Every structure is written in C-alpha cells, then in structure tokens.
C-alpha cells in the first residue's frame, strides 16, 4: 500500500536548489585551497582560482535568472524568510528539546517553510550578499584598493564563510542525516513528501493542501483535475 504524498517543491525550485548547492560547495572547497596555508600547494598554478571564479559566476547568475523567470515567487520567498511571528519564537524555544528527542507535539504548527528553514535562509541570504560584495572588490578592484581596505574585504569574506559554512553543516545534518528529518532530502530529490511528514513538520501548510484537495474532490470533475501524488 502506497502512502499519500503531496508536492512540496517544483522541478524548477529543485534545480535551483541543487545548482546553488553545487556552486556553494565548489566555492567552499576551492576557497579553502586559496586561503588555508596547509592547502597552498594544491592552489599552485592558479587552476583552483579559475574554478572558484567560475563557480562564483554560477552562484550569482543562478538566483538572478530565477528572479527574472519567477519574480513573484522570488519576492514571496524574500518576504517569507523575513516575516517572523510568535509561532517562530515558540518554535525556536521548543526546537532544542525536539531535535534531541523531545516530544514532537510541543512544536507549534508551521507553514511550508518552517522556522529552522527560515533561519537558515536568512543566514544564507546575508552570507551570499557578503560573498558577492567582497568578492567583486577582491576580483575586479584589487589593484585600486588600499591594502587596508583589501584586508577588510578578505576578513569579511572569511567571516561570511565561517558563519555561512557553520549553518550549512547544520542544514546538511538536519536535512540529510537527522532521523526526524528523513524526508527533507527526499523532498529536494523527488519534490514530494508523505502526508504524515507534511502534517507533522508543516502543519499549517498541509492544512491548506488538504483543504484544496478536499475541495477538488468535491467539485464535479475535480477528481480528474486533481494532481496525482
């Protein structure tokens, strides 16, 4: 017997996610080669610097193209990650206990993007802005910047890597390894999650989905129009 599934992410959203993820990982690895003395021998010859810059271009162009193709969805995403309320504060309060085995019922119902995902998105958003801003100066204006200003660009770039990298590790652990998040990775591969997972992790959103499905079934011909899950 197959479990009922609901669509969580479109194909376009998944392609965007994995493109950004791949570019970010290449940037992180090649960045370590460029800035950590222990890896300096790997960076000799300039190949890693070229790869780093290619990945940087992809890292910038991917969200720009997504915005041009889907400006409404892009503005909605930005508005969503910066919209915080009492349920988000309640989630932050309950999350430590929950992630270490506490009662799931104590977690407040969440929309399609829960508070943890919003927190990650905010950190990623500002880290990306910091990377892009300082990266442009370091790449194109390094010969015109004073030594002091250039050093500050490097420091800010590195701080973005430390903060963003730490949150990325948390994101990877919760999205792919944590036993209570087993369907998070699946949702970014298949685009769908089970109704049970949606209800427990995104209760507000699933309530809306269930209402739409019920309305579709109750409308003449609605069953045929309903998207298969």
Can you summarize this structure?
The chain is an all-alpha fold. It is 73% helix and 3% strand.
Could you name the key traits of this structure?
two-stranded antiparallel sheet, 73% helix, 229 residues, mainly alpha, 11 helices, Fumarate Reductase Cytochrome B subunit, single chain
CATH architecture: Up-down Bundle
The assigned structural class equals: mainly alpha
How many discrete domains? 1
Task: Please give the number of β-strands.
Answer: 2
| Share of residues in helices | over 70%
The CATH fourth-level homologous superfamily:
Transmembrane di-heme cytochromes, Chain C
* CATH third-level topology: Fumarate Reductase Cytochrome B subunit
Distance between the termini: 14 Å
Radius of gyration: 21 Å
Please describe the biggest sheet, giving its number of strands, its sense, and whether it closes into a barrel.
2 strands, antiparallel
Assembly of the depicted chains = single chain
Percent strand: under 5%
Shape: elongated
CATH top level label: Mainly Alpha
Uncertain regions: pLDDT < 50 for 5+ in a row?
A: 220-229
Q: Can you write the helix and strand succession as a string?
A: EHHHHHHHHEHHH
